[in-house]
Amino acid sequence: MVGKSVVFVANLKPRKLRGVVSEGMMLAADDGNGGVKLVTIDGDIASGSQVR
């Protein structure tokens, strides 16, 4: 993931996932073939930008 910009949903209510507290999630989509693809950003955008 070095050099990639991905979409995170942040500031979620803290939850324990596999024994680790999480307050955010990476946004991903089903690729229709049983796999999952991360939602990435095409181009430059400031950290913290809102997804609409």
Q: What do these coordinates show?
A:
The mean pLDDT is 90. Helices cover 0% and strands 31% of the residues. The strands form three sheets. Strands 1-4 form a two-stranded antiparallel ribbon. A two-stranded antiparallel sheet has the order 2-3. It contains no helices and six strands. A hairpin with a 5-residue loop joins strand 5 and strand 6 (36-38). By secondary structure, it is an all-beta fold. It is globular. The protein has a domain at 8-38.
What structural category do the secondary elements indicate? mainly beta
Beta-strand percentage?
25-35%
Poorly predicted parts: none
> How many E-type strands?
6
Largest sheet: 2 strands, antiparallel
Tally the helices: what do you get? Answer: 0
Cα end-to-end separation = 23 Å
General shape? globular
Record the strand order, biggest sheet. Answer: 1-4
Helix share of residues? Answer: under 10%
Listing every helix as H and every strand as E from the N terminus to the C terminus, the arrangement reads EEEEEE
What Rg is obtained from the alpha carbons, in whole angstroms? 13 Å
Mean pLDDT: 90
